[in-house]
Design brief:
- It comes from Falsiroseomonas algicola.
- By secondary structure, the chain is of the alpha/beta class.
- It has ten helices and eight strands.
- The protein folds into two domains: 137 residues, Rossmann fold; 102 residues, 3-Layer(aba) Sandwich (Rossmann fold), CATH 3.40.50.
- It has a four-stranded parallel sheet with strand order 2-1-3-4, with helices on both faces. It has a four-stranded parallel sheet with strand order 6-5-7-8, with helices on both faces.
- Helix 5 links the parallel strand 5 and strand 6.
Length: 246
């Protein structure tokens, strides 16, 4: 099984964190193929940067999807998720949707800890129809760059935030929302009184399951390939991917 782990942030260190976390939980024989965005923000932290990253995501997936069995979006805003599902012939899973889905199997209400803008995560939860199960969101005073430059300090901040979220809201599971938090649950699990999940580990497991199910690509409905429409200035690979559904 060959899985793309696609990070549209332009920071290779974040991609490396995600790839290492993915390999740590992947089944024997599963190959993890990491990708990093060619253009856009170093770390996505706004809707505008996320919109740019959506283009970068689709372009790199168009270039690399041949031969892959599935795609995990290694970006906590699940950038380009539905668009990728429209265009690609293989299963696509977003890391935050995977973390939320796994959390719903472990508890009745979940909390989220993040570096980023809480409102965007509220929107992601709402898109999945799970607002009623969201206990709360806590943003820490650190950046994704700190997570790979000073992991011990960031681990402590995340553990404190997660524990406070549990105490204040009654969250029964905590989802870490940030690609740079990949692999962190194993380091802080003893410091937090409920299960802690990251979307990369959850996403690999869910994606492997979907690949084994061998689902057919939708031929109708909102996630069917949209077909080619007139375009201009796209990369050859992305133009070809659009043409594949014509």
């Amino acid at each position: 099984m060959r899985l793309l782990v696609a990070n549209p942030n332009t920071t290779p260190q974040v991609t490396e964190l995600c790839a290492n976390a993915a390999r740590a939980v992947a089944s024997p024989g599963t190959q993890i193929l990491p990708l990093t965005g060619r253009f856009g923000a170093q770390i996505i932290n706004s809707r505008a940067e996320n919109a740019i990253a959506g283009h970068a995501m689709l372009e790199m997936l168009a270039e690399k999807v041949a031969g892959a069995d599935g795609v995990l979006l290694a970006v906590s805003y699940d950038t380009g998720l539905l668009a990728a599902r429209e265009l690609l012939p293989v299963p696509v899973v977003g890391m935050t949707e995977a973390g939320i889905a796994a959390a719903c199997l472990l508890g009745t209400r979940f909390g989220m800890v993040t570096f980023g803008t809480p409102v965007i995560y509220q929107e992601l939860v709402a898109q999945q129809g799970l607002t009623g199960r969201l206990a709360g969101i806590r943003a820490i005073t650190a950046s994704p760059k700190d997570a790979y430059a000073d992991p011990a300090t960031v681990d402590a901040k995340v553990a404190d935030a997660a524990s406070a979220l549990v105490a204040e809201t009654g969250a029964e599971v905590v989802v870490l929302c940030g690609a740079a938090m990949a692999g962190m649950p194993a380091r802080i699990r003893d410091a937090v009184p409920v299960p802690v999940l990251d979307g990369i580990a959850a996403g690999v497991g869910l994606l492997e399951m979907l690949v084994r199910l061998k689902p057919a690509k939708a031929r109708t409905g909102s996630l069917a390939h949209p077909g080619q429409r007139p375009t201009q200035g796209l990369s050859p690979a992305l133009a070809a991917l659009l043409a594949a559904g014509a």
